[in-house]
Write a structure and sequence with these properties.
Elements: H1 5-16, E1 21-26, E2 29-34, E3 37-43, E4 46-50, H2 56-61, E5 66-69, E6 75-81, H3 88-108
Antiparallel strand pairs: 1-2, 2-3, 3-4, 4-6, 5-6
Amino acid sequence: MPVTDEGVRRLLAPLEAVRPITSRKMFGGVGVYCEGVFFAVVDDDRLYLKTDAELDPRFDAVGAAQWVVEGPSGGPMPYRELPGGLGPEEVAEWVDLAVAVAVRKKRKR
């Protein structure tokens, strides 16, 4: 789970350009928040957005990798990698979609 400061800066810069983003180190990775909503993680210097059954088809359409935690208690997690080569408007759309997933999941609790 190596996460470098340079990797985090590089991955979060496009998000910070379109939305108010904060982050904090946790469990060897980095949690990413938009206006207080936890919607993404950085692990192995890769950015993964929160997803669910509603959003998964969009990630599938662009071939986005799923976050998989290694180890005996690990496995696939409900996060998918942000597609590359996006412009600011597309980044904003993906952030908004992932934040909406996080809000939906929070309401279900």
